[in-house]
Amino acid sequence: MVRTRLYRDGKLEREDLALGEIEGLLSKDGAAVWIDYESPSEEDLGAMETILGLHRLAVEDAVHDHQRPKLDRYPSHLFLAAYEAALAPEGSDLTVTEVKAFITRRALVTVHGADFAVERLTEKWDQENDLAGHGVAFLLWGLMDLLVDGHFDVVQDLDERIEGLEDALFDDHSSDHDLQRRSFELRKSLVRLRRVVLPMREVLNTVLRRDLDIADPSMQPFFQDVYDHVLRASDWTESLRDLVGSILETHISIQGNRMNLVMKKLTSWAAIIAVPTAVTGFFGQNVPFLGFQSTLGLVLSLSLITAGALGLYWLFRRKEWL
Description:
Beta Polymerase, domain 2, seven-stranded mixed β-sheet, 9 helices, cobalt ion binding, cobalt ion transmembrane transporter activity, membrane, CorA_cytoplasmic_dom
């Protein structure tokens, strides 16, 4: 599937252009063209490779998945690889969608799979159409702002879920297994998000370089705003990853403390039970002693059992073992 748009002098002039028209439009002043490919092959990009002079290595990267986020510089164009991120409504599974783009002076060519909601990108451009006069810089800013805002939303969502995890940490009724599972799921999502967000700092740094002349002075503040969001998202991701690690360590410490408390209680009750065992064992000897085979022996043994057990119980309660 191929989508196209033509902007001329800051206005959306046409959509769904024929690919044969694009080469002629690119030579006209004030024109900026967006071409969007969904799940193309190298053969599908062959026409654009010829028209825009795309490097064959960039075309190869565009059709192969699992590229790292980057902005490569070629003689006639730039090649961007980035990711859209989203968090599942239920659970903590992070899904990422790869998006690539070829950037020339008059055209932006985007390449992505079926999972990327391209309608949100066109809505972004339509909402900010007062910037359309900046041509390809405007198109590129809309794409990067959409992706980075998505990263920021995911980080905020993860932060809220980690707060819920902190509340469950000290809840006596929460399941240890469920807490550990949620902790590891969140940590896994944060590690995966970090791989997506962290390289975007270098990507935005490259875009903001004046020698590349990607963004004119009027668009610089908008790209700078995206860069600020990238910095906040990356720093926030690092902080949350450390926080999840601290939660896991705290959970292990709490489990250790609970185990120590259980052992104290078991030891205390074992000591209390040992008193009647010792007394009855002594009075069970088949030798003459004070009260042997008399009521006095029964009273004496019961008194020792009661006094010893109550004394140990009082002592352990005082030490907060029971």
